[in-house]
Amino acid sequence: MKDTDASAKEGIVHKAIRHDSAHKHVSGAAKYVDDIAVPPNTLEILLGQSKFAHAKILSMDLSQVENFPGVIKVLTSADILGTNDCSPFAGDDPIFAENVVSYLGQSVFAVVAEDIKTARNAIELADIKYEELPAVITIDQALETGNVLGPPAVIECGKVDQALAKSKNKLEGKIILGGQEHFYLEGQAAFAVAGEDTDIVVHCSTQHPTEIQHKVAMALGLSNHDVTVITRRMGGGFGGKESQGNLPAIVAALAAKLTGRPAKLIYDRDDDFILTGKRHDFQISYKVGFEDNGLINSVIVDQAMRCGMSWDLSEAIAARAMCHAENSYFIKNMRITSHRLKTNTQSNTAFRGFGGPQGIVGMERVIDHVAHHLNADPLLVRERNFYPHKTSATHGITPYGQTVHDCIIQDIISELKKTSDYADRRKDIEKFNKNSEFLKRGISLTPVKFGISFNASFLNQAGALLHVYNDGSVYLNHGGTEMGQGLNTKIAQIVANEFQLPLDAIKITATSTGKVPNTSATAASSGSDLNGMAAKNAAEKIKSRMAEYLAAEAQIKPEAIAFEDGMVIVGANSYDFAEAVRRCYMGRISLSATGFYSTPKVHWDPKTFKGRPFYYFAYGAACSEVALDLLTGENRILRADILHDVGRSLNPAIDIGQIEGGYVQGAGWLTTEELVWDSKGKLLTHAPSTYKIPACSDRPLDFRVQLFSEGENCEDTIHRSKAVGEPPLMLGTSVLMALSHALQSVNGRSSYPNLNAPATPERLLMQSVGLDQANV
Amino acid sequence: MDTLPIVGADGGDVRNYLTFILNGKTQRVDNIAGDMTLLKWLRNQKSLVGSKEGCAEGDCGACTVAIVKTDDSGNLTWRSVNACIVFMGMLEGCAVITVEGLNGPDSELHPCQKALIDFHGSQCGFCTPGFVMSLFTAWSNKHGLMAEDIDDTLAGNLCRCTGYRPIVEAGLSLKNAKQPQWELDRNEILKKELLKIKSSEPVEITDGKNSFSVPTNYEDFSTTYADQPSSTIVSGATDIGLWVTKQNRNLSNMIWTGRVKEFSKIDQQEDFIIIRPAVTHQEAMEKLGSKWPTINALWKRFGSVQVRNSGTVCGNLANGSPIGDLPPALIALGSLIELTNRNKKRKLPLEEFFIEYGRQDRHSGEYVSGVFVPNKSGNNFRCYKLSKRFDQDISAVMMGANLSVEKTKITKATICFGGMAGTPKRATEMEKALLGQPFAPQSFIKASKNINKDFDPLTDVRGSADYRRKAAQNLVMKYGYELTGSFVPNLADRNQVENLVS
Questions:
Q1: Do residue A467 and residue A535 come from a single domain?
Q2: Angle at alpha carbon of residue A27, lines to A26 and A29, rounded to 5°
Q3: Are A529 and A451 members of one domain?
Q4: How far apart are CA A103 and CA A130, in angstroms?
Q5: pLDDT tens sequence across A99-154
Q6: Domain around A677
Q7: How many domains does chain A have?
Q8: From start to end of A479-531, where are the E strands?
Q9: Same domain, A534 and A571
Q10: Using omega within 30 degrees of 0 as the cis cutoff, is the peptide bond preceding B166 cis?
């Protein structure tokens, strides 16, 4: 069989193909969980939530709720058939709180009713008596009281203290980074139907059907094979549907099981905000030692992160934050300490970047601070400290012991510097700022280096299932989930390319635990890397079986068989694909295959925090320019130039979409998106009226995004592409640093503006107060 | 189910079912709860699940649909609205078009849908139907697809995936596209169908528990409300809709202002522009905004197109909603508010209407029957809004200001703030400090130092007390600089921002 990968026939991969569901998106025909036509006897569920952040449950009288007309069942921990836990692994997240509530909004019971309006009316009749306990809400409170989930974790390399002591210059500082709500447009959603025997089918908006399957089985006292979880698509995930879908899915399944009727649990927006975890807020303290030329000798970083009331995925998130604390810089002496703080708030969870963004922003703050001290362009300090280029004689080693042999950040920076006209614009801006009292501009160019693979090596595996039916149509299934990132499109491209078929010959189907088992979450940007390889593997199996049979039939060598342009070339004959398939079928050849992939080379020791957690790194850089109104703190992104490395892009249109969306989401995190809890642990920002994600006019007015044209993964990834889901989010860092630049231009200012995030108009105004109006 | 005829206030029969057109088909809807929202009805009763619930409060736009009516000259008018906070009774006599109703014969996609596909404008797709409908409404109105107004067209639609650039480009690509013949034909048919269901009959729908009255003339409205002062008056439902969707409040009787023919007018007298109860923000904006560009800019930030198309000026004032950005501006203009109880009317300065947080000077049985905006207020009127996000955000601080200058001296000043107290409140000490002062920045800077005498603001999710004080002070300074001809930043102004891009 001829190798199509190396040939020029890679027509369908690397092409800007539109999203497979685009047609359905625009016509309203794309179905999400709440859109599934349900049987008329379907029940609707509402969760009863804790009114306190930390309290003992003294008594719970739900009789009035139960007796309310239209209420079919009330569920509490006593109704759970198996284990009362919905955590991804630590066993510390009760489905329904028992005895103690640990955050305000926690699920305590559920009302299962004929419709949601009935449930809403009934739930108000719950009579629960609490005895309030002292609550730990903030990072500072948790640090003061030593409330931690586990002991501090440390990564260290070199001789940190000596190198710091010997440095010509030393600085210390701190940056506070707020959390971030996912604000997927579709809230958490699950719809469960109990079948015969012990069967349960759950349709769920989740990035991790397998975990839902396992958790539902545990909670219902079933085996995994009793539970089927199906996910056609999500209305956005961003990490927020990696573990947070467990609770609604379990409760819906439990309700379906116990009532015998289909049951649906959809979080409305406010419930979604109040129930689910978010991006961790961080306080990052740093000490840095450096030379006059900007060379950084030593960095000590303390990352204090608010994990919330349970582990959820915080251990892995902490690890990734630590593994990105040096960003693109080769810091030979570095100590990173992570404090995983336990608080009586929502259990924080995965969010695009998974700790990486906090780690990276922390390091970029260090650079910005150093540059301010040296009165230098921060970009010079950045360039001084990059990891050696991949072509260098020696490579850098990360603090966690991975050699960086694919570093191309220099190439990206030098090209972006040119295309964005960085140097001249920076000069212009500084001149402009001298003459402008109330309006300042700022510019910043920041790099991203992001490690690709799950830190926990065992998760780096994937499966696919491929059927070729005897009419030549191809049915594709794989373990990844579609949340808008275009994964299904990319994988269909990969399979179409294998068979050299047009894209519409490949049927994309809903992810189902009944088709591909034991999958990992579609997370860590790994979706197409893992599932693409698995699907390719399945296609190759079928192709080689076909080739072998057709070759034998024609009495030629299998190597002479070629799949080309919808045809199969068999020696002198060529059949259209359907005919070739028909022949194989008649010849009793298996036209169905599973595919499998496990990422090579990765290993990680979670005890010593050393290893090669990442198969490779993705690189990118952004140059953002902002304008800042010093009288109000209002600001705008004027222009953003991005150059990002996706290796050899599987689909440039989809990749650019990920980059633009990631950048804007990152910028939102660092500017307008502010989560506010009161002192009692009540989340006050729980709807779009109070929590402000970027709106249309917040995008950069001038937005120039390019893929790095020389991009090619030096590892043997799927068609030499690179993962693209998470890395671009951290391009938004440039916005925060550009605002810092604008503040540094405030007339009469010499101190470093310690700008925290989100840099709301308030924070920006308060940073400039007293400096700009000295003459007033 | 048969329903008994309901006796109207004038003793005449009130129709007990609604008539409207959904995606080209005339609907007759009865026996339905008065608080049923359009979105719920579409999704649950009609299985039209293309319109999505993203927030149930009119902030995300995922449920955007188009409401079509004919104007006085028989032309179609198109409004995008958030179906999650539209009550069914508000559809009487209208046509509703949802994302499922756009395509042409043989399922040919509408140009707005095609453009979004061509520009890769959807990722997860959940917000997409709403964007389609916002673009479609702009397209149908032949307004809102140019570079200078596309952001406004889309401000009420949130997307978490794309970063908006491809959606904006899809929108811009439509500005010169031709309407397909089938759409023109369809619109002609729609005009005729709308005429067929045109009526001035009062309507009341109910499921026996929750009713929604749709009176059509002023006498009916006044009498009905005076007789049942416990009813809830609904205008645009951009606030009251949330009482239902968010607060689960049981509103047993609602009376809608929207079809009362006297209520949808903007009357122009010599001294006043009078805004009646059913006048939407959008309509008022077009009238007042052409006179004062500053209030036009405020209105754009205050509410998305969908919200402006539904919400009303009088409703905004009547509720004393903290979301009210308009009162400081209207107070600075010296506006009066008119209250009516049956046939008794009284007028008072708008600022006196707001007594304390959540309490207005509105007696039982009284309703807000008009806002009287002085016609002659001068060129020195400005409003400034401060919020975390430019569009669709509630102000941390809102200032409306106006002043008169004679012979280089300030002779009169009105400065009113929102967000600085429980109600919109005038900065009387600052105003006093300005009087008699030279019309120069220094006067404003000095006056702004009275901030602590005028206000003791709160800290909440929108801003701290310190920030509010500082920002309010700066806004007074900004006002002074701006009026006296200095450059001041205004990053909400697209032209200014465009000029800054390097």
A1: yes
A2: 115
A3: no
A4: 13
A5: 999 999 999 999 999 999 999 999 999 999 999 999 999 999 999 999 999 999 99
A6: 408-455+610-771
A7: 2
A8: 506-508, 511-512
A9: yes
A10: no
Q: How far apart are the first and last CA of chain A?
A: 81
Same-domain status, A535 and A655:
no
Domain closes at, from A598, A631, A646 = A598
> Annotated active-site positions of A, please?
726
SS3 A662: helix
Residue B222: CA atoms inside 13 Å, Cβ hemisphere, count?
15
- Dihedral sign computed on CA atoms, order A62, A65, A66, A72: negative
- Report yes or no: A109 and A254 within 8 Å, Cβ to Cβ: no
Is A696 within 8 Å of B123 when comparing Cβ atoms?
Answer: no
Q: Which residue of chain B is at minimal alpha-carbon distance from A697?
A: B151
Q: What is the DSSP letter of A252?
A: H
Tell me the shortest Cα–Cα distance from B145 to chain A, in angstroms. Answer: 14
Report CA A21 to chain centroid distance, whole Å.
21
| Cβ contacts of B401 within 8 Å, gap of 6 or more | B332, B380, B381, B382, B383, B384, B413, B414, B415, B416, B476, B479
pLDDT band at A2 (very low <50, low <70, confident <90, very high): low
Mutate which of B100, B449, B461 to test chain A, going by most A C-beta atoms within 10 A? B461
Short-list A620, A529, A548, CA closest to A591: A548
- Kindly tell me the number of DSSP H helices and DSSP E strands found in chain A: 19, 31
Average pLDDT over residues B198-224: 94
Task: Answer for the pair A551, A570: CB distance below 8 angstroms, yes or no.
Answer: yes
User: Residue A120, exposed/middle/buried by CB under 10 A (0-12, 13-18, 19+)?
Assistant: middle
> Which of A120, A23, A1 is closest to A71 using CA atoms?
A120
Assign residue A628 the CATH number of its domain. Answer: 3.30.365.10
Residues forming a β-bridge with B21? B26, B95
Residues A509, A434: one domain?
no
Q: Which two tokens stand for residue B12?
A: 């005449």
Read off φ and ψ for residue B443, nearest 5 degrees. Answer: -65, -40
Q: Which residues, 6 or more positions from A6, have their beta carbon under 8 angstroms from its beta carbon?
A: none
Alpha-carbon distance B221 to A122, whole Å? Answer: 34
Task: Tell me the pLDDT of chain B averaged across its residues.
Answer: 94
Closest Cα to residue A145, out of A339, A287, A276? A339
Q: If we measure between CA atoms, which residue out of A281, A360, A270, A279 comes closest to residue A313?
A: A279
Count H helices and E strands in chain B, helices first.
Answer: 19, 22
Residues of B in contact with A351 (CB under 8 A): none
The verdict on A752 and A671 lying in the same domain is yes
Residues whose CB is less than 8 angstroms from the CB of residue A273 and which lie 6 or more positions away in sequence, other chains included: A181, A683, A685, A686, A687, A691
In chain B, the domains with their CATH numbers are: 17-196 (3.10.20.30), 215-374 (3.30.465.10), 382-483 (3.30.390.50)
Comparing CB atoms, the residue among A428, A664, A701 nearest residue B497 is A701
Report which DSSP code applies to B380. Answer: T
- Based on the fold, state whether residues A674 and A533 are members of the same structural domain: no
Count Cα atoms within 13 angstroms, Cβ side, for A58: 7
Residue type present at position B194: L
Contact B397/B475 with Cβ under 8 angstroms?
yes
3-state DSSP call for residue B438?
A: strand
Q: Both tokens of residue B160?
A: 């978490």
Instruction: Give me the residue from B49, B100, B445 closest to A776, CB to CB.
Output: B445
Q: Residue B322: its pLDDT value, please?
A: 61
Q: Is residue A630 part of a domain?
A: yes
- Nearest CB to A185 within list B60, B390, B392: B60
Say whether B431 sits in a helix, a strand or coil. helix
ipTM attached to this prediction: 0.97
Condensed to tens digits (0 to 9), the pLDDT of residues A201-224 reads 999 999 999 999 999 999 999 999
Q: What angle do CA A43, A48, A51 make, to 5 degrees?
A: 165
Residue whose pair of structure tokens reads 């009341």 in the numeric block: B204
